[in-house]
Design a protein that fits this description.
The protein has 359 residues and is α/β, with parallel strands linked by helices. It has 12 helices and 14 strands. Helix 1 (9-20) packs across helix 2.
Length: 359
């Protein structure tokens, strides 16, 4: 059924369940961006209701798998790196702020900024540099010093690259996997946990972390469904924490009664923006002279219909703007892009409706 027709959310859910109800296992794969925006909560509750209608909880090998927008997104969420959640997906004791809210509050409610492995110029909106300038102090862990850090950071700790780190990552299906250090630390580079532990000790809030293994143990001690999980058990193949006895500590929530109700429809002006990541958009290709030829310039992918409507030709320079933030990108016309949608890569804008104009 085409989006925008009169079919209700309840009928659409029933039709999806009928189409997927087969004798074999069913795995529903969905992207994290679905949970964002004004109707994100209804979308997630609809997914949970769909899982209930299919009986996925009672079918081994079936379930929902979310694809995070960033590497190790699931692991970061499970240890408490979300504004409203603490370690173990439990409600936080106090309300927190997301990245954009922290930037908006810089110099006011937020005086100091600690940036850990954050490519601020690519991952946060255009107001990042302004926010860094308002903050009283800025401390960063970075493998490359950007122009913004050069201008605003009070302290920059040399950070490990992905090949120099040791620890764990969590696969989207819940498998905790071990990351082993492949190359030595150059110069004065130290493990991130080591620097953070020393900072906490100097601030009279010691963590009692002395090694990567003890850091993993500290995380496992704070998360009930990671209980007693160590690097030795993770080994080379990893461990799905759902299959361990400690997983029983995680409560199972049922969808609310109104999960299938149709959410209020709000008019949507402008075009929807999505991400079009590139394999060559990492920091290494921008900073290493020998790899710079691989770096991709910002581009915006449009449908042929929108290109005609906007009188845009491939190669034209576009301005994509929203709420005062804007980026410039080269136009690329692709038949696979739906009308009313623009895919931006590499670049960053908040999710929502954007205005696209020729430069």
């Amino acid at each position: 059924e085409r989006a925008g027709t009169d079919r209700s959310g309840r009928d659409a859910l029933r039709a999806a369940a009928d189409a997927l109800r087969v004798d074999g296992d069913v795995v529903v794969i969905w992207g994290e961006r679905l949970s964002g925006g004004e109707r994100g909560r209804q979308a997630v509750e609809g997914l949970i209701a769909l899982a209930g209608a299919l009986g996925l909880a009672d079918r081994e090998g079936s379930g929902l798998i979310e694809i995070p927008t960033v590497a190790n997104g699931r692991g970061l969420r499970e240890v408490g790196c979300l504004p409203g959640l603490g370690p173990g997906l439990e409600d936080a004791d106090a309300a927190g702020m997301g990245g954009e809210q922290i930037l908006a509050a810089a110099g006011d409610d937020v005086q100091a900024l600690l940036l850990v492995h954050l490519d601020a110029e690519r991952e946060l909106p255009a107001a990042t540099a302004e926010a860094l300038g308002r903050a009283t102090s800025v401390v960063a862990f970075a493998d490359f010093v950007t122009d913004a850090l050069e201008e605003h950071a009070d302290v920059v700790f040399p950070s490990e690259s992905y090949a120099e780190r040791e620890g764990t990552v969590t696969h989207p299906d819940g498998r905790v996997q071990r990351v082993r250090q492949a190359v030595g630390h150059p110069g004065e580079v130290r493990p991130g946990w080591s620097v953070l532990a020393e900072l906490c000790e100097r601030l009279e809030a010691p963590l009692e972390v002395r090694s990567a293994a003890s850091a993993t143990a500290a995380v496992a001690g704070a998360i009930p469904f990671y209980a007693d999980l160590g690097l030795d058990e993770i080994g080379g193949k990893g461990v799905r924490w759902q299959e361990r006895g400690a997983a029983s500590s995680l409560p199972v929530e049922q969808p609310s009664e109104d999960a299938l109700e149709d959410p209020p429809q709000t008019p949507q002006e402008g075009m929807r923006v999505g991400a079009a990541p590139s394999l060559w958009s990492g920091r290494e290709t921008r900073h290493a002279p020998s790899l710079r030829f691989l770096a991709s310039e910002p581009h915006a992918e449009l449908s042929p219909a929108d290109a005609r409507r906007l009188e845009v030709r491939p190669g034209d320079e576009l301005v994509i703007s929203m709420n005062g933030d804007s980026v410039r990108a080269t136009a690329v016309v692709r038949s696979g892009v739906l009308p009313g949608t623009v895919f931006l890569g590499p670049g960053s804008l908040p999710a929502g409706a954007v205005e696209v104009t020729k430069a």
